[in-house]
Specification:
Order of helices and strands: EEEHHHHEHEHEHHEHHEHEHHEEEHHH
Distance between the termini: 117 Å
Shape: elongated
Radius of gyration: 34 Å
CATH architecture of the largest domain: 3-Layer(aba) Sandwich
Helix content: 40-55%
CATH superfamily of the largest domain: Tandem AAA-ATPase domain
Number of domains: 3
Structural class: alpha/beta
Oligomer: single chain
Largest sheet: 7 strands, parallel
Length: 407
């Protein structure tokens, strides 16, 4: 209000003529001397004629920035997901209560670990805790991660592969993008690690993390060394796997050291924490324990149903004869012969021997699947062998003859 007129009105009373700053409406008020003394005189240079729409947008932006303080599930309310109870429990009862997220989420396959990771990303971003995010996963899952994070959480990630990095030679692509998805086997390469080492991430998510294995202190795979690098170059790290434990306590301890090398260095303390079911670094739920609440009953209770139907495995027997039985015997002899060769090569520390042995077992699985499947596999093997033979013959033809013994 602007004061236009001041007029004395009796003992200790004053009449003030006022005009509204925006409305321009006239108003008269009567005040005592004490009330006049309490009036606040604003700076005459201040203006209230700015764009009200911009002010409203600014206030809305500010309210969204602090909304998580009043609504702990705010990130969920602005995401396109309908989470299950076990997913909410993992994010809001475990992950977000940690001062620094260094956690192993080891639910059974199909539990929706991607959704849980996406909710964590959304909530940490709303709190202003993360900006640079790296997702490391198997190559065949890269675009699935990219699609789900965009469709469900409106988070745009750049998939970095070998071609992207080669096309931008001389530029550290890891520093160019703030949200990156890459494959485990690309990131582990010796020529890639120096670029990764230059970047500090706010959050690293590693899917299928059990692939980062270390047999013991001295035998650490390239993938494990990648995990150590990422552990040391991030504020928050989330490991996702459905198979965290291989039955070896020492191996599991080394795996947990990808979260924190110092905290999880003792096998005994980790075992005691897990026995007490009070491990703050680890959460595992089986399919049998995952439920949801589809309907409210008449008595006010919720109907509980399992997310996954109970699995009842059984073996279906069948009899083969004739040409199928003959094929089975031939494939079995072939597999045995090649496996014996692989075993002999393994004694000479041939790195391909173990792979060959595994490949041989696949032929029997393909045969059990269908005649068509084993036929396609054998046709591909024949083609590979023929191509290899042809390349060897070409090398012989182009090889320079040895003329040293000529007169």
């Amino acid at each position: 209000m602007r004061v236009i007129t001041v007029r004395k009105n009796g003992q200790d009373l004053w009449d003030l003529g006022l005009v509204g700053q925006r409305s321009e409406k006239w108003r008269r008020v009567t005040l005592t001397s004490d009330e006049i003394a309490e009036l606040k005189i604003t700076d005459s240079t201040l203006s209230y004629d700015s764009d009200g729409r911009r002010l409203r947008i600014a206030l809305q932006a500010y309210s969204l920035g602090i909304a998580y303080e009043f609504d702990p599930y705010f990130g969920l309310s602005i995401s396109r997901v309908d989470p299950l109870p076990h997913q909410l429990e993992a994010v809001y009862e475990h992950l977000l209560k940690l001062p620094s997220v260094r956690f192993l989420l080891a639910d059974d396959a199909g539990a929706g670990k991607t959704i849980m990771a996406g909710l964590l990303v959304r909530e940490l971003k709303l709190r202003g805790l993360i900006e640079r995010i790296l997702v490391v996963c198997p190559a065949n899952l890269s675009f699935q991660w990219q699609r789900e994070l965009f469709e469900k959480f409106d988070e745009k990630f750049q998939v970095l592969n070998g071609r992207n990095i080669r096309d931008q030679f001389g530029v550290n692509q890891w520093m160019e993008h703030k949200r990156v998805i890459t494959s485990l086997d690309l990131a582990k390469r010796d020529e890639i690690l120096p670029g990764l080492r230059q970047v500090h991430w706010d959050l690293v998510i590693i899917d299928e993390a059990h692939r980062m294995s270390a047999r013991d202190e001295t035998h650490r795979s390239q993938r494990y060394r990648l995990g150590e690098l990422l552990r040391d170059n991030t504020d928050h790290i989330l490991l996702l796997t459905a198979t965290p434990h291989k039955g070896d306590p020492k191996n599991f301890t080394l795996f947990l050291q990808l979260l924190d090398q110092d905290v999880y260095a003792d096998v005994l303390s980790i075992r005691e924490a897990m026995d007490r079911k009070s491990a703050p670094f680890y959460l595992r739920r089986t399919k049998e324990s995952m439920v949801y609440f589809p309907e409210l009953q008449a008595d006010g209770s919720w109907d509980t149903k399992r997310v996954f139907t109970k699995r009842i495995p059984h073996t279906a027997g069948f009899v083969i004869d004739g040409s199928e039985l003959e094929l089975y015997h031939k494939i079995t002899r072939f597999v045995k012969r090649q496996s014996q060769r692989a075993a002999s090569a393994a004694k000479d520390n041939n790195p391909r021997a173990r792979a060959v042995g595994f490949l041989m077992s696949l032929y029997q699985r393909r045969l059990a699947s269908s005649i068509y499947a084993i036929r396609r596999s054998l046709e591909k093997r024949v083609k590979r062998l023929e191509d290899g033979l042809e390349q060897a013959q070409d090398l012989i033809k182009t090889a320079t003859p040895d003329l040293s013994n000529l007169p």
